[in-house]
Amino acid sequence: MVNCSALLDSNVVIATVAEAHPDHTASLALFTSGDASNYRVSAHSYAEVFTTLTKRSPRSPLHWPAERAWAGLESIAAVTTLVGATPAQTVEAVRLYATNGNIGARLYDFLIGRAAILAGTESIVTWNIGQFRDLFPDRLVETPDLYLARILSG
């Protein structure tokens, strides 16, 4: 197996901890077939995952209690490395995002991608490959199954 560091997007973390998620099996395979010590998670993603897991709205299917969501995050934190930007790097990322003419909530994906770059990871692993490839065209962006296929074959 190739040693390849990867930053896991929030949607991969959510799918990993939520058995009811349609991408659960493929996301969980990162931890059962890959080396979780090579995985990074952005500090920003912890807030995003917690919010998604505990959100109470008709469009949000999970509705987890806070304790369950935190336990899921702790299980990920126990085997991955937390990464993030300094306050100055965060401000610079927002400036760069705005300077490139970007607007709206894709900023959160941009902050996650910047964390991947700052951490020196080789890949961003996400279920939203199109969004990340648009924001980071020079970066390797893969779904969990594509990432695993690549590292297991190498």
Helix content: 55-70%
Architecture per CATH nomenclature, i.e. the level-2 architecture: 3-Layer(aba) Sandwich
- Overall geometric form: globular
Average pLDDT value? 93
User: Element order, helices and strands?
Assistant: EHHEHHEHHEHEH
Could you give the order of strands across the largest sheet?
A: 3-2-1-4-5
Whole-number count of domains: 1
What's the total helix number?
8
**Which spans have pLDDT < 50 for at least 5 consecutive residues?**
none
CATH topology: Rossmann fold
CATH superfamily: 5'-nuclease
Number of DSSP strands? 5
Largest sheet: 5 strands, parallel
Q: Could you explain how this protein is built, in words?
A:
By secondary structure, the chain is α/β, with parallel strands linked by helices. The protein has one domain: Rossmann fold. The chain is built from eight helices and five strands, in the order βααβααβααβαβα. It has a five-stranded parallel β-sheet with strand order 3-2-1-4-5. It starts with 5 loop residues before the first strand and ends with a helix.
